DNA sequence: CAGTAATTATCCCGTTCGGGATTAATTCCG
DNA sequence: CGGAATTAATCCCGAACGGGATAATTACTG
């Protein structure tokens, strides 16, 4: 996941494939819906900061907030067997 | 999700189907592996409290910790289209 | 290219997570 | 059934989330 907006922060890219996949899925879905991060924040009852961090794969984000965001985008979380 | 160990706490059962499904999946998988919550905590690098709350569907748990637990149980998180 | 829009980083600060311990309640099983 | 095992609730407290604002950086477009 290319961090194109990086200023000077260090981003640990090695954390988890799942995290990265979720982050990418959220960003892609947001763009499909032609929403800015700010709009998505408003629609999901979260803040701009949360959306930004979610899309950059921040590990420690709160599950229910993420579920709220997914719902706005017509997505869901599922538990599956590891491949 | 029957709360069989409930003492006197009030449990909001209406929160999110996804949360409940994740919680149930974790508990079921743990039992399939014949692990106690304490053992699973040890294996996943979390604490007993976290496992207990995860299995009871606590909404605000931290995503990466949950992913660690799922990994021990041979499970993964996926984002899917909402049905 | 320049101006505007969008995204990211950082700050302050109130709220809450969760480790580990302890206690209480429930479940398990011989 | 009773005792041991397991799970849930609660406590203290350090760590950290995240709202909102601000500033910096990057992307977009005419």
Structural features, described:
The structure is a homodimer of 83-residue chains. By secondary structure, chain A is mostly helical. Chain A has a domain at 17-26 and 37-72. The first copy, chain A, has four helices and one strand. In chain A, helix 2 (37-44) crosses helix 3. Chain A is globular, with a radius of gyration of 13 Å. The model of chain A is unreliable at 8-14 (pLDDT under 50). The structure holds a DNA duplex (30 and 30 nucleotides).
Write a concise synopsis of the structure shown.
The first copy, chain A, has 83 residues and is mainly α. Chain A has a domain at 17-26 and 37-72. Chain A is built from 4 helices and 1 strand.
Give the SSE map:
The structure is a homodimer of 83-residue chains.
Chain A (H helix, E strand, L loop, with lengths): L16 H16 L4 H8 L3 H8 L7 H10 L2 E7 L2
Chain B binds a DNA duplex (30 and 30 nucleotides) through helix 2 and helix 3.
């Amino acid at each position: 996941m290319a961090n194109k907006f990086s200023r000077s922060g260090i981003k640990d890219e090695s954390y988890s494939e799942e995290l990265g996949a979720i982050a990418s899925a959220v960003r892609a879905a947001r763009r499909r819906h032609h929403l800015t991060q700010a709009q998505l924040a408003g629609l999901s009852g979260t803040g701009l900061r949360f959306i930004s961090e979610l899309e950059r794969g921040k590990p420690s984000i709160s599950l229910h907030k993420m579920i709220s965001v997914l719902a706005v985008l017509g997505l869901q979380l599922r538990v599956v067997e590891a491949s």
